[in-house]
Specification:
alpha/beta; homodimer; TIM Barrel; 12% strand; two-stranded antiparallel ribbon
């Protein structure tokens, strides 16, 4: 039997219609998610395969989606390295990394010992979903993990991370290298468990200049992808707020480049040419607009997908305030969209 | 006697050396600032002309600066509109603006009743500083004010503001128009009090797509500048994370375009041509690096100022962790820099 539409589309194969999934589709906008969440902490949900499976399946019961992304958090693989953290609600690191000694102390476990509950949940998810639906694994890109590890918590522009890169370049290189190995091993385990597509989230790509991104962040992303080469999994690189980094973030050797609502699909297409598979980029805030506005915005986005292979998604994770019907509107528009 | 170097440079006149000042030079990196702050709340400092004057003067006692920016906060003019807010430490709005009725209820006072303590502090500052030092006034750009007013507090990407723009375009237009009038009046009062240069901070420019920025944010900035036309003051427009908006943010009819560390000066210069005055863009996090690294980065930046008229600054406000000596290093490099 043939592979899921999303997987074939991610490879750039010619497909019967545009695939669609939503970042953070398993999340707080669903009452059934909030029901589970009311009984368990966020970390508990990530650490319990049955709970992660349940909330990953929830959106599939309501919507005709082409992908099922595993419920987890980009920070969870770091638990295996002994990093102490809490969610309040964003990640808070007990002991931020600031020195070479801190980086050296970070232990990177073997493949079988990273994000074990998430890997197990992926195995169960692959069994549970319709084979037409692609199972999507994910991880944080090394830069984005480093941003939290060094800053200690979320921020606007992670100035402590930037200061660390400038002041301690050797320690920074070692940190990015370790995080790349961690992420590569973690994603290999996800693929072995059944993930057919994996996405690297570089949510904080935009905080660095091109020079600094090229020096520290890009080689680490390429290293992650090189560790997955033998698996033939479809690789998606999602970089936020990266207009000033476009030549870099589109050269990571991923199969798919994902981006947010700040750039238009046409602009990105003009820069990358007709062959690269793109993913995005409806503003998740647009899903809070009245139906006619959302429908028009979705159509305008779909019009821009003519320039080359495309996977429809939001440009960033769905917001808790998203009305459920908004997903029906977008999916309806995508499924009824006629090429040319 | 001739006008201050900074004012002449901002007009694009040929000047004897590069001018330099630092965003948030009156701030937490100075122990004498923290001393004042330990005795007064942030809002109290903004509301008391003598205190605002004192902390504005503090950096001038230590450093050879070409400009003296008044100590205040972009949110303070909103106090005159009856907006209740607190700083915790970022602004928190008691009743966020979400509907047309909320926007209609926002009253914009006359010129003489907006930011009165700040305007008074500018009058005192102009008397107090060496006439070679330019007095700099400032305000938040309408988009950035709207972001806090609608979201209710600081955020990563102000999704409530974006949702408001999409769902309530008429209310949004009215809000931006009111904020432009408020800001125009406020800056006019600052100029009348002695500000020789004024900067509009569009710290959150980067959260919108070009289409949305063009529709809502840009006309409001142009309106502010048009209200200042008769004053002949030097106008600086600072837009953060705006690589995807460059043709828009460089077309506001300001005299000077300021930007952050994400873009290189060479890149921006290539886009705007040889005549526009640029301002920036050392990463404030770079001022936390060891002296040789900082010195090299400053020289690399100075090398890029060859393409056209330039005002040296950081690409974003100085961080509390900035060592005092770092400013001496940067100023030393700028003052000893030889053109060509």
């Amino acid at each position: 039997m043939s592979e899921p539409l999303l997987v074939r589309a991610a490879r750039g194969e010619s497909v019967e219609r545009l695939p669609v999934w939503f970042m953070r589709q398993a999340g707080r906008f669903l009452p059934e998610y909030r029901e589970v969440r009311s009984k368990h902490s966020f970390l508990e949900m990530c650490a319990t395969p049955e709970l992660a499976l349940e909330v990953s399946l929830q959106p599939l019961r309501r919507f005709e989606l082409d992908g099922s992304i595993i419920f987890s958090d980009i920070m969870t693989p770091l638990l295996a390295c002994g990093v102490e953290m809490d969610f309040a609600p964003g990640p808070v690191i007990a002991k931020p990394i600031r020195t070479m000694a801190d980086v050296q102390a970070l232990e990177i476990p073997d493949e079988g010992h990273i994000g074990v509950p998430t890997v197990q949940a992926i195995r169960m998810l692959r069994q549970a979903v319709d084979p037409k639906v692609a199972v999507i694994g994910f991880a944080g890109a090394p830069l984005t993990l480093a941003a939290y590890l060094v800053e200690g918590r979320g921020g606007k522009d992670f100035s402590a991370l930037r200061a660390f890169l400038y002041a301690e370049p050797e320690a920074a290189h070692l940190l990015f290298n370790k995080l790349a190995v961690l992420t590569g091993r973690y994603l290999r385990a996800q693929v072995a468990a059944g993930a057919q597509m994996v996405q690297l989230f570089d949510s904080w790509a935009g905080i660095l200049s091109a020079d600094t991104y090229r020096t520290f962040a890009l080689p680490a992303v390429k290293k992650v992808w090189s560790m997955l080469e033998s698996t033939h999994v479809s690789k998606v690189f999602f970089a936020q707020a990266s207009a000033h980094l476009l030549p870099l973030v589109t050269s990571t050797e991923a199969c798919v480049f994902g981006f947010d609502w700040r750039l238009s699909i046409d602009e990105v297409r003009a820069q990358v040419g007709p062959n690269m598979v793109l993913q995005g980029n409806l503003d998740p805030a647009m899903l809070r607009a009245p139906e006619p506005v959302l429908r028009a915005a979705t159509r305008a986005m779909l019009k821009q997908t003519r320039g080359g292979p495309h996977i429809v998604n939001v440009g960033h994770g769905l917001q808790p305030e998203t009305p459920i019907d908004s997903l029906h509107v977008v999916i309806d528009e995508v499924r009824s969209h006629v090429f040319f």
